[in-house]
Design goal:
homotetramer, alpha+beta, Butyryl-Coa Dehydrogenase, subunit A, domain 1, Butyryl-CoA Dehydrogenase, subunit A, domain 3, three-stranded mixed beta sheet, globular
């Protein structure tokens, strides 16, 4: 169970870290400062486009691109463990994941296209996604049902001749606010008495410019709209898509989403670890540079303990993520599932705790725009809900734990 | 030690509660939705002014005004315990405290004017403040020093003939963004070798339109500017004020601020309890109305425990606040001080925990603009830093605790 | 809602505190050191009897006796709030509650006899109990069922002519190891199809010397048998009692136990607060007297924070207990019930946390026989299980909280 | 960084696990039930000796012996990571570590003899220790000083001709109560102005039967004396040892103890993980077998969450221990030190939390002698103090963390 940095990935980590800290960080800050400068927060100014494209070009030129394609000939063929170390570095700065074409939800969507897409889909959507020319979204959550129980999904998808017709609302569609977002993968309800409860849903591919799609509003995360990316609330009214837009077959929606979400959750978690690590670094800098009562903060009260606890939590959470990644690499998704549930609970929690302590160590600066901490906190807070709330994942962990003891009790 | 609702205050609580929930809540939401509608987030639209002034007029007409004037002939003569119950109700909706002319920082500033102001100040500032015609700010925190150690305050205030001349920066000046803010009370450094360390600072009164004052920017709280109120970053350049603007005498700044902050902290804490109570109510509603896995959320997993823990925490925190208020009412500020430090740590912490659980119970809606929870969380989070960070207050509590055992160890 | 120390109870508190600390503490330690000195840990040596009886005589002579008889002509007529303050003092030293004839389970049992007993029972059991001549036990918990769900109680009680005949096992019968224990109040199953689920049990009075009763063993609490008091595991084999030994009527067992347990839980909780307060005092003494790295422990690392948190927790828990006591005093047991459930969770938890921190502050001495801390911890730990585990009480609190929102959801 | 089970150690783990669960567990329980059966708790009955020796003989016959000798020709040459997995299994049952001759403090003492002992010491002490014929103790902690600051150690060791003469007290000398304990390794003060603060102490070897050594009493752990092993309080009065009993040279005591404690802490921590794992297993069994309110406990309230959290904590703590072991295997003790400090804090804490939840799940049985949980809890609780209290280890972690940022701040 090698959870370490392999010789193969070591130089990549160095290159990514260096590019994230040196090249991306300052431009990422500038990019964010320009949000809304055109009068529309979901529009790119010329300078924003320039920043993003120049960084992507630089990454491509250094062959630092599409790392997430684990066991694939198209990418580096990295293992999930190896990729995890890269994801951690990319989590430290806002734009970084996109610069290396490793951002959610595109990575998951690309995997879906690669695995289940028709040749036409691969040509029309996968290719430009792999090239970083378009972006995509993944539409799962709905406003009127408890999405923690995915069988509640209710957007209708009804066969009409050679088409399917979609009706309903989705919200928290991350990235759908981006003008470059060209395609959605959408979970829909396709009920049939012939199939069991977990086979009543399907997944369809919908062009973003299909008639009948409205963006109602941007959902806010603790008051912030995350523009120009956005988490959009959308309405689908008689949206018509050709029948071959339905992936894999009716009723197989969860099969696809399960496969899709595993790696995505590991990426999210490792990026969260990256944010925790960045927060700890800021906390250490602050505590050694700022003085009160005649001493550096580090030497006051419980601050040594706070710093030590942060280090211990991060190390444990990282090792757990690496073990989950390693389980994923063993090829048995069923066996890996409870491990992914574990990190889905642990990594955001640890990151939130560490970031919150870093906020407190910074005083009023910590909650302000003068450090990345406040933004990091609200971002990571979403992870306790996205892709299943903590309670659902804990339930999965407990069920796996109890299985050897009884089949009835779970 | 009567911590209960007295017959005198009971009908007031009912009236305030009813007005907060029925009259203020919907208009408060409308008011917030209009922020920025004029193109300037720190400007009031006509409708915003209309909302605020009509509500204030209604409160005045019902004689629900200036409750905070405890032991004063001008107000109700409520005890701090009695006022605490009203503050809790006012904490539940954004605009409420201002509607009853009970909002920070005005209440504290009015107390300062009442107690230490010259007749001219009372006429020029106190009167319109008591009438709700102007607003005020309190300028303490500075960007370049650890304000947790108040002796660090460095804004200079130098005598020059009949004037004092101020230079320096202040930030997190709450309310200074409001166009109605007419006056600042400002902590300044007036060093003198003749006085001990805690007597090197003074407090001065500065008209908001004094030449040399610049508002540099609005500080953001987890990405939100709290407009039109705002927490401003300001620069004072050669700001000249007449010598009688200095309150009470040189070197007596902390004497004033200590007297000022005690009641204010109780108000803050009881409003935080109000927000916790409001969050628990939302949590209960959500958990009984929303279903997942075929059951109301309340009946799933740990949700009973989460609700019970929230109730137990709130009750304890409220009782502690009431006891601190009762200590304040006994008239010995020195004896009350460690109690106020206790609630300053406890009340925000409890409110944050309860609100966060309410967020989680609401799923993605909880972090969004669709409930008041996310805003409440970020607002209460500031209280762990404002008026002294947790660590400083814990230190005060510990020092008081250890005093009987030794004088050296503290 | 007066939660304070009344003029009436103030001198009693002083007298009790003084007697506990000065008279009882040293003799209590001697008493405990003599356990087992006769070769039988559940036997009293002459000196043990002398210690106990002389202290009881002293208490009686000072009229510090039977305080627990709230609203009764026989006692002081103290309110529950007033008694709570006394219970706190009595919680600080091992023998204290018994010295004042205020120890569990006698107080609860005496209340049962007073309220539901026949004249014969009052003469035979209540009178000597009130005089401190005998002791009693309360037999509820059974080894083979989950006693957290009290409807599981399974000891049979079958009518046979003029008698009832009991069969079954009880364990954790506190005080049943004491040779002075003369009578048991026992929960038994008396099923009847005519009565609902919560009316299938009854309560009977059983002389300790009734044939057929065996003491199987002493249950240990973290390795300690709590001799000579003991928590005994007992077997009842064809134990025959006259029919009028059944209190109040068949099926009314829970009615009695509910009434009995409310005040008892408050007493337990306030004694736990007393133990927390005693632990905090030890922690403060240690932290100011012991040095490491050239400083008193108090000034090292997080110790100020640990002390402050202990103080804040204790104050909150005490106020909550006092409020629950006040609710009890209002006379509506149904309304008071969720408050008692709250303190049943909170008070032991807080006491355990404070004691554990005190242990840690004492280093290896803390876990040893050289301080009362280790014993206090194991004793308080039982309270998280006795009279209902935490989870059951949290459930009660949540049900009460949710009631206004729905009747179905609970 | 291979943290997994190697092919080499896999069969050993299976053999050890099987022997622990099948052979040792029942006899370990019998052994403990016989403590005190001779009338002296620190004496072995014939049956106790038989049990222990027969199990040791069995282990030896299977070549399951002295695993702890990592990188040594005498043992298996296991890496610390490999050994860690074995330690976890041995932690699950009381006698197990000794059965495989892997018990503290012998393993540490044997390493000291191996590394620093004279040929005579190796013959006289190391050989019979390796054979399991005698046992040993390690005398560090003293009653009158804060041993968390090891420079406080005050037992005197004065040169007198060809001898050293020792005077002072030691307590918590684990294993010194065992009649088979033949030798002590003792930390003594040998002050010299020529040496720095951390070079004022030395380590000496003292035969247990040297004149002048008194065992004053057995220290109790939460009321338990841990007989026949014991944690003894001892007095040394003019104990005379030959000069060559001083290891390595005057002033080098800490050098030896640091080297000694690293592996020992890893062993302790992995055994604690084993106890946590055993507790979780009991919790799962109980929660699926016991019913209340008509359902298995597992399905009630927060129990799924409790089980899931236990699993997540254990996995993280184990991975951290394994990483610390791996760091140790890299050969740089200085680099490994903060990792060992991390697990020293984390592993006992996690084990205590999991065991406490298991206790609660078992109801009153959990705190009693009917499960191993209560004993396990008190045993693991000592680990938060032994070999340095949590606070000291957190301090080490923080110092290591802050080093890159400044040299002054630590």
């Amino acid at each position: 169970m090698d959870l370490g940095i392999t010789p193969r990935v070591r130089p990549l980590i160095e290159q990514v870290r260096q590019m994230v800290q040196t090249d991306i960080r300052p431009l990422s800050d500038e990019f964010l400062s320009l949000v809304g400068s055109t009068g529309n927060r979901f529009e790119y100014s010329e300078r924003q486009t320039e920043i993003l494209e120049s960084l992507k070009a630089l990454a491509k030129s250094r062959n630092l691109w599409n790392f997430w394609l684990t066991d694939s000939e198209k990418g580096y063929g990295l293992s999930t463990v190896e990729y995890a170390y890269l994801a951690e570095e990319m989590g430290k700065v806002h734009l970084a994941a996109e610069v290396f074409n490793c951002a959610a939800p595109d990575t998951g969507n690309m995997e879906v296209f690669e695995r289940y897409g028709t040749p036409e889909m691969k040509e029309r959507w996968l290719k430009p996604l792999l090239d970083g020319q378009i972006r995509s979204a993944y539409a799962m959550t709905e406003p009127d049902v408890a999405s923690s129980d995915a069988t509640n999904m209710s957007m209708t998808c009804v066969r009409d001749g050679e088409d399917y017709v979609l009706n309903g609302e989705k919200w928290w569609i991350s990235g759908a606010g981006d003008p470059r977002c060209a395609v959605y993968i959408v979970m829909v309800s396709t009920p049939s008495d012939d199939r069991p409860k977990h086979s009543q849903h399907s997944m369809v591919v919908v062009p973003a410019d299909a008639p009948g799609i409205e963006i109602l509003r941007a959902m806010e995360v603790y008051g912030h709209d995350d523009a120009p990316h956005g988490h959009m609330h959308m309405r689908f009214t008689n949206v018509r898509i050709p029948a071959d837009s339905l992936l894999l077959g009716e009723g197989r929606g969860f099969e696809i989403s399960q496969g899709r979400l595993g790696p995505g959750r590991i990426h999210h978690c490792m990026r969260a670890i990256g944010q925790a690590e960045a927060a700890l670094e800021l906390m250490c800098r602050r505590s050694t540079q700022r003085e009160a009562f005649g001493k550096p903060l580090a030497q006051l009260g419980a601050n040594f303990d706070i710093i030590a606890e942060a280090r211990m939590k991060i190390e444990q959470a990282r090792l757990l993520c690496l073990k989950a990644a390693w389980m994923m690499d063993q090829g048995d998704r069923r066996a890996a599932a409870p491990w992914i549930s574990q990190i889905k609970v642990v990594a955001p929690r640890v990151a939130l705790e560490v970031i919150d302590e870093a906020v407190q160590m910074h005083g009023a600066a910590g909650i302000s725009q003068d450090t990345p901490l406040a933004t990091a906190w609200t971002h990571v807070r979403t992870l306790r809900l996205a892709d299943g709330p903590d309670a659902v994942h804990r339930r999965q962990v407990a069920r796996a734990e109890l299985k050897p003891y009884t089949n009835q009790a779970t």
